[in-house]
Specification:
The protein is α/β, with parallel strands linked by helices and about 300 residues long. It has a single domain, classed as Glycerol-3-phosphate (1)-acyltransferase (3-Layer(aba) Sandwich). The model has no long low-confidence stretch (mean pLDDT about 90). Strands 1-8-7-2-6-3 form a six-stranded mixed beta sheet, sandwiched between helices. The chain is built from ten helices and eight strands.
Length: about 300
């Protein structure tokens, strides 16, 4: 094991392993993506999607390997028992660090399908990365601004219709859709600026999850509500690369989606919007209380 090496050297080694892993996995991914473009037949599309999904999982598994090699993180996990690889989920979590994404990938890899994020349609044109997102089946959405809709009221609902069409490919294929409800990483300055009523959380932004439920709620088995706590304090990505993230506490809560929240338009239905915001705020109150308990059970740096 390499955990006896100086932390900066471990960080350099981890960075190289991450880069090599990305190159090694993206090369076959892009080759398969070309075949996907050239063979627009259902059987070929299913096979290329299956193959690219396994390449995605291999990339995560290789990252798990170097994390274990360099770090010896102690994982304290709960609530994973009922998750099923054959089901579709909407996953959300509190957001403290860029490490959160690696933590979620580490724990959820091959328990559910690889996490996908809703992306703005314009991002598909980002060189290299846009192709990777497309190849991996990340859903691209087209949303019009309120100012645009005021000038073009005939376009109301068209953005959601477009997004629904992009989600049709998930109808018979399990998927893990991910959204950070807070929208940004926690920081004391942001917390104070928002005047957040929560001790450990920023205010939740309900619109993102509501949009997913509107576009594909009937396809989802449940919402997976994730709470992450780092006893030693919020780590940076360099801390992860250096193997300095020694303890991670993660709780998973599977929530059935209330049927009254499926197929509703968050932007245009004011009554539904208030009800949904109240539901999300209650989840955040419960999450804040759970984080308080985690801080007591796994004390460390505040």
């Amino acid at each position: 094991m390499l955990d006896s090496l100086p932390a900066p050297l471990r960080g350099v080694i981890a960075s190289m392993l991450l880069a090599l892993n990305t190159i090694a996995c993206c090369t076959p991914l892009f080759i398969v993506a070309i075949f996907k473009l050239l063979l627009p037949f259902p059987a070929a599309q299913r096979f290329t999607d299956w193959l690219m999904g396994h390449i995605h999982e291999a990339w995560i598994s290789n990252n798990k390997a170097w994390m274990d090699l360099l770090g010896h993180t102690r994982w304290k996990l709960s609530g994973l028992e009922s998750l099923d690889y054959q089901h579709s989920y909407l996953i959300t979590s509190n957001h403290q660090s860029w490490v959160d994404i690696m933590v979620l990938q580490y724990v959820l890899n091959r328990r559910i399908r690889p996490l996908k994020f809703f992306l703005k349609q314009e991002l598909i044109w980002v060189p290299v990365i846009g192709l990777a997102w497309w190849a991996l089946g990340f859903p691209f959405m087209k949303r019009y601004s309120k100012a645009y809709l005021e000038k073009h009221p005939e376009k109301k609902g068209k953005d959601l219709e477009t997004t629904r069409k992009t989600c049709d490919k998930f109808r018979n294929n399990p998927v893990g859709i991910f959204n950070f409800v807070e929208g940004t990483r926690f920081a004391e300055g942001k917390h104070a600026q928002q005047k957040s009523p929560f001790k450990y959380l920023l205010k939740p932004k309900a619109g993102g999850i509501a949009f997913v439920l509107d576009a594909m709620g009937e396809q989802l088995e449940a919402i997976v509500n994730v709470t992450i706590h780092y006893p030693a304090g919020r780590p940076g990505y360099w801390d992860l690369l250096c193997g300095n993230v020694k303890d991670v506490v993660v709780h998973f809560q599977e929530l059935k989606i209330p049927p009254q929240f499926i197929g509703k338009n968050y932007d245009q239905d004011g009554e539904y919007r208030l009800q949904f915001q109240g539901w999300i705020n209650q989840l955040w109150e419960d999450k804040d209380a759970l984080l308080e308990q985690m801080h007591r059970e796994y004390p460390g740096k505040s």
